[in-house]
Amino acid sequence: MKPPATIETVRLRLRSPVIEDAQGIFTTYAQDAEVTRYVSFRPHRSPDDAREFLRRCAAGWAGDGPFTWMITQRADDRLVGAIDIRPQDSRVELGYILGRTYWGRGFMTEVVRAVSDWALAQPDVHRVWAVCDVDNRASARVLEKAGMEREGRLRRWTSHPNVSALPRDCWCYARVKETA
Questions:
Q1: For residue 80, is it left (φ>0), alpha (ψ between -120 and 50) or beta?
Q2: What is the pLDDT of residues 18-49, one digit of tens each?
Q3: Which CATH superfamily is domain 6-176 in?
Q4: Domain ranges in the chain?
Q5: 159 and 168 Cβ atoms separated by less than 8 Å
């Protein structure tokens, strides 16, 4: 499965990343300890860390994923965050991050809904899912508002190095393709 390079919503544009995004990634979200609290990477120390991330993004687009989009405002192309998908057989996993300045505006709900709608429209995709730390109430709310259902608690599922060195419990959310 190869996703489109661009997806648009009412207010936002998702586009494949370019190396020139490094400074925007660094200043918008990647160096912010609060924003990166529940992600799998440590806060970036410099734009060089963002450039390394962008190299991995390019490799994903050149291969079988993961596929990362930069989230920008349609009105001014300002970078606000990122979302990626990790296709696997009939499933697609989502991961996302949003700059703190843009929290509370419904941006991520809009994006998660658009990406999961696109994924479920693919003939071979039957499940779109995501996990979030049990303490990350804001992310859980995003997934719920985007139409995902909480399926359960995954014990000791993944490490969030900015919270703990040990794997933490996560909530699992999903949308599935309904059969007729």
A1: alpha
A2: 999 999 999 999 999 999 999 999 999 999 99
A3: Gcn5-related N-acetyltransferase (GNAT) (3.40.630.30)
A4: 6-176
A5: yes
In three state form, how does the secondary structure of the chain look? CCCCCEEECCCEEEECCCHHHHHHHHHHHHCCCCCCCCCCCCCCCCHHHHHHHHHHHHHHHHCCCCEEEEEEECCCCCEEEEEEEEEECCEEEEEEEECHHHCCCCHHHHHHHHHHHHHHCCCCCCEEEEEEECCCHHHHHHHHHCCCEEEEEEEEEEECCCCCCCEEEEEEEEEECCCC
**CB contact at 8 A, 158 and 167:** yes
Q: Give mean pLDDT, residues 126-142.
A: 97
Predicted confidence (pLDDT) per residue in 42-88, tens digit:
999 999 999 999 999 999 999 999 999 999 999 999 999 999 999 99
Q: How confident is the model at residue 180 (pLDDT cuts 50, 70, 90)?
A: low
For helices 137-145 and 107-120, the axis angle rounded to 10 degrees is 50
